[in-house]
């Protein structure tokens, strides 16, 4: 479980520090959690500066280029523009993952960061790297820089302090994020702030069902795909769960803007330009992430059919079936 907060009061901030930075890390351990899930634990001399806020904190895994490894990896403030202009053979591959947990401050032990890989469907460059990873392997990750002082960005679960009813939905790619979200909700309950809600997670097979922390008042349902198309078994269960939470969906909502999921990223989160949660009017907060076509279907149901305020729902197409990361 993560021991971090969104800021690092124990790290000296620097006025010129950027919100995110590159970390040179080493693989410490590789653990197969299930047929689909593989956990890689990273260590690094400067991970004490790593400022994960928990929840669904995103990072970038930076894979070595086909030619030269990391020799051509830009490290200045304008790294992204330089990276985009590089020839393909020199450009490192970037893939987005969720921080599962962070451990630091344990006497005699280095700071560690866990990343859980969902090895689903077609094997991309990050999955191939993870399958081949061994202790001692070196890689680069881009993540929040504690010396900046925050906010860092990369967290979309932002319900606001008043939310106490939740609908959380994801497929295997969202399981690491949802695992951390559940731990956060359990901490809220332990601190005297009760919550209610439903969490539904779709995974490829029964052996992928993991032992997660589930706070009192929250129901966790595992939906085993078992060869069925993505979302075929999940969508009806989400419809039923939303009806229970909302006591019915009357079809009084608006039609959400159409998103071409084959040409653009489905990523709609209820925050303002500064990244602060917008004030919702709905009776719950919903967070949904997974295969883009499934999330689009659920987005239409919740916003149009159930009338949920769009300021109370985060929709994220983590990936698109048959396509590389956009």
UniProtKB/TrEMBL annotation:
Any GO molecular function: oxidoreductase activity
Segments forming domain FAD-binding FR-type: 20-151
Family annotation (SUPFAM superfamilies): Riboflavin synthase domain-like
Pfam family, one: FAD_binding_9
Gene3D superfamilies: Nucleotide-binding domain of ferredoxin-NADP reductase (FNR) module, Translation factors
PANTHER family: FERRIC REDUCTASE, NADPH-DEPENDENT (PTHR30157), NADPH-DEPENDENT FERRIC-CHELATE REDUCTASE (PTHR30157:SF0)
Name the record gives this protein: Iron-chelate-transporting ATPase
UniProt source species: Luteimicrobium xylanilyticum
């Amino acid at each position: 479980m993560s021991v971090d907060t969104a800021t690092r009061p124990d790290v000296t901030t620097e006025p010129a520090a950027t919100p995110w930075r590159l970390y040179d890390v080493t693989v410490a351990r590789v653990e197969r959690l299930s047929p689909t899930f593989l956990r890689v634990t990273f260590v690094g001399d400067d991970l004490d500066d790593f400022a994960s806020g928990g929840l669904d904190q995103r990072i970038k895994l930076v894979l070595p280029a086909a030619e030269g490894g990391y020799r051509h990896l830009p490290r200045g403030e304008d790294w992204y523009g330089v990276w985009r202009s590089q020839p393909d053979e020199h450009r490192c591959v970037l893939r987005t993952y969720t921080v599962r947990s962070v451990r630091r401050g344990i006497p005699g032990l280095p700071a560690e960061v866990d990343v859980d890989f969902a090895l689903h469907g077609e094997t991309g460059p990050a999955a191939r790297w993870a399958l081949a990873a061994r202790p001692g392997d070196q890689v680069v990750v881009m993540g929040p820089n504690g010396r900046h002082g925050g906010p860092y960005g990369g967290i979309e679960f932002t319900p606001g302090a008043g939310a106490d009813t939740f609908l959380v939905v994801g497929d295997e790619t969202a399981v690491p994020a949802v695992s951390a979200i559940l731990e956060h909700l359990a901490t809220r309950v332990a601190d005297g702030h009760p919550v209610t809600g439903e969490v539904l997670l779709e995974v490829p097979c029964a052996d992928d069902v993991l032992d997660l922390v589930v706070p009192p008042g929250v129901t966790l349902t595992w939906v085993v795909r078992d060869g069925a198309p993505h979302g075929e078994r999940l969508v009806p269960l989400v419809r039923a769960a939303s009806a229970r939470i909302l006591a019915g969906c009357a079809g009084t909502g608006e039609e959400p803007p159409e998103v071409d999921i084959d040409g653009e990223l489905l990523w709609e989160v209820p925050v303002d330009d500064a990244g602060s949660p917008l004030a919702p009017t709905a009776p719950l907060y919903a967070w949904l992430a997974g295969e883009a076509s499934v999330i689009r279907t659920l987005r239409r149901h919740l916003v149009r059919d159930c009338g949920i305020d769009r300021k109370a729902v985060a929709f994220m197409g983590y990936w698109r079936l048959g396509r590389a990361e956009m």
